[in-house]
Design goal:
259 residues, single chain, mainly alpha, 12 helices
Amino acid sequence: MSYAKQLLQDIASEKQGLLQHPIYSLIDDMDALRAFTTHHAFAVWDFMSLLKALQQKLTCTTTPWVPVGDANTRYLINEIVLGEESDVDEHGNRGSHYELYIDAMKEMGAPTEMIENFLSLIVEGVSVEEAISVAGLPASIKEFLNYTFGVVNHAPAHVIAAVFTFGREDLIPDMFLQFVQRLSKEHPNELAKFTYYLERHIELDGDHHSHLALQMLEQLCKDDAEKWQEATQAAIKSLQMRAVLWDGVLACTQRARPV
């Protein structure tokens, strides 16, 4: 069995458990969906940060330019960056997946203040660690982001690639997309952008980009058994941290429901 297939086998139960998280069955109306997006937006944003961390490690992002690393690996990460940072919305307008997501939240009436206030601190020069601490975020989001930026700031490229590949891709179950599609028929003016985002996410992130990301991980680990073990441990931990984020959404949604 190849190292990559062994990794996929080792994380399968963790991934399956996450796809069956009770949050998906609890999201059954617009209010619950809005609550979900206020938390999920942080996963969309920190995915972009993992992406840029990989680009910085695997390509030359400074001047004067010099060739860095393997050209095949540079190609893989740069192609993913192109799609994630400058994709198109349903009207063909360019934007990052984070910006598309925020636009979808605003269309459905979901509050965006929490993540936009958080990002404004970073734009003003506050370190991400301090911003996480002082922005008044729920504990689940703090724990999720602290793990991500511990990886971004301190882990080697193959570990970042594992978190990027398995902690973020393919984590939206089909039943959730089907629910959103049904709900969008009742609320076409509120969910057009969000439905597009999810369908685009599955088309691009869950298919094409996930294959590119796995190829990138294989390039970084090659036949180094220790690197593959580290990648496996990081992938499992990243799935566990997504579960922490979903637990936070679940608690928030349950508190908002009438007894």
